[in-house]
Amino acid sequence: MQVLNASEVRKDFSRFIDQVVHERPIVFKRNRDKILSLSTEQINALLEEVKFKADLFNEEDGSVTMVLEGFDLVVNGLNQEQTFEKMAEELVDYAQDYFEQFVLYSKSPNRKKHFPYVLKVALSEDIPAIVRLINA
What we know:
There is one protein chain. The chain is about 45% helix and about 25% strand. The protein is an alpha/beta fold. It folds into two domains: about 5-45, 3-Layer(aba) Sandwich (YefM-like fold), CATH 3.40.1620.10; about 50-135, Double Stranded RNA Binding Domain (2-Layer Sandwich). A hairpin with a 4-residue loop joins β5 and β6 (about 75). α4 crosses α6 (about 115-125). The longest helix is centred in the middle third of the chain and has 21 residues, at about 80-100. The mean pLDDT is about 95.
């Protein structure tokens, strides 16, 4: 894959963006740092198979509890629909925290594997889209 210099990208930034969005991913470098530029469509294609696995538990009081596998997230709702929505909202909050503390989370042994998942959540359009990512 061809690697452009940052100065080349800077010279014609609009063309660079058009190429990334409409043609292909592009790598450019500044000094020794390399950056891969992808459109959201390309990223979504990479993350297509990313789904959350969850376990549902019917409680004695009629409520439903959901535990997300591989994450420390547990919610309880009055019914299954509310429980899915609550988990989707928790995932939005978690994704925000992850990006706000990216250096910490991305290097933490128990959280670095979450990156594709939080990226998928961050790119989702709304809560119903996130609900559709949860398999229970």
